[in-house]
Amino acid sequence: MVNETKPQYSPGLAGVIAGETAICWVDPAAGLMYRGYDIHGMAEKATFEEVAYLLLNGELPNAKQLAEFTQQIAAQRALPDAVTEMMRLLPKSTHPMDMLRTGVSMLSAFDKDLNDNSHDANIRKSIRLIGRISTLITDGWRISQGQKPFPEKPELTQAANFFYKLDGKIPEDWKSRMLDTIFNLYADHEFNASTFAARVTASTLADIYAAVTSAVATLKGPLHGGANEESAKMLEEIGSQDRADAWLTKKLQTKDKIMGFGHRVYKKGDSRVPAMREIGRDLGKRTGKEQWIPICEKLEEVMDREKHLCANVDLYAAPVFWMLGFPPKLNTPLFAASRVAGWCAHVVEQHDNNRLIRPRSLYVGPELRPYPGSPK
Ligand code: COA
Question: How many whole angstroms separate alpha carbon 293 and alpha carbon 238?
Answer without folding.
Answer: 12
